[in-house]
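Hello,

I think I submitted the magnesium ion job twice by accident. Can you confirm which output corresponds to this input? Input:
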Amino acid sequence: MNPTPRAFTEEREQRDLQPWAAHSAQSAGRQRPEADTDSVRTAFQRDRDRIIHAKAFRRLKDKTQVFIAAEGDHYRTRLTHTLEVAQIARTLARALRLNEDLTEAIALAHDIGHTPFGHAGERVLDELVPGGFRHYEQSLRVCDMLERPGGLNLTQEVRDGIVSHTASGRPGTLEARVVHLADRIAYVNHDIDDALRAQIIQADELPKGPIRLLGNRHSQRIHHLVLAVISESEGQDKAAMRPEEAQALEELRQFLFQRVYFGSPPKVEEKKAEGILRQLYLHYRENPELLPAQSAPGEEGVRDYCAGMTDHFAISQYARFFLPRPWPPEE
Ligand code: MG
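Support: Only one job matched these inputs. Its output is below.
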């Protein structure tokens, strides 16, 4: 009898992946036990598919990455950022013979709980929510509880990767570590690309040392950084970037903080975005009957609803509650 496609994949993982990779057949299991009769997909492949079909995933298309209400079709959104992270992370995982499906699932979910209006939105919720707000915790909450009744019931490996994707997190798998590296490679480079497009910076202003090392072009830099992770980690039980390139990437990141993330002209719009989300949060807190019926009680429900909004929906709700309507109403 031929093995099922799933058994075939699990065997191939056993044969081809490094011993320190996560093997789907040895997953630590789901949040809650569930009958597993899938003969086609491994546990991690199913997780990836559950994430792609989540409503919260689709909403990423209309959430700011860096530039709020950017005029122009070519700026990154939270969704295209996520796809770039997944692409880089999969390339790394395959090259290092780690589990590509687990890596992809973590990458696709890593920002699924992000607020509207990028980090401006996150700052406001962090200030208002009792106990603070961190998007990676919210990403796990979306997957565990908010997306469909009972949540997506993901594997422990994907859940761990989602909640530990930041610098301070200590992921349990190298696949999660790869997503963290890919996130940084992706956002530093695409934020440079978007800032050049917006003419906030000029190419000749980029720090000379890192550009000399990594390359002039976006694609060269990503390729160089990917190679720097592979050469540092290949054949070893680790996922890290060669120190020289890690330093160059950090210099570019610091440049972005100084020139783009804080104090640049479009950032003025962030103040307005903060005001919108703050007023909405306070309004729903005062009027919880306006929240969807299935919301968690108290401020948890307010937080979940506000964090889940797209930029567009937040602006439309603000207009509904706080802007006078024209009179007489249009047909
Ligand atoms: Mg990210």
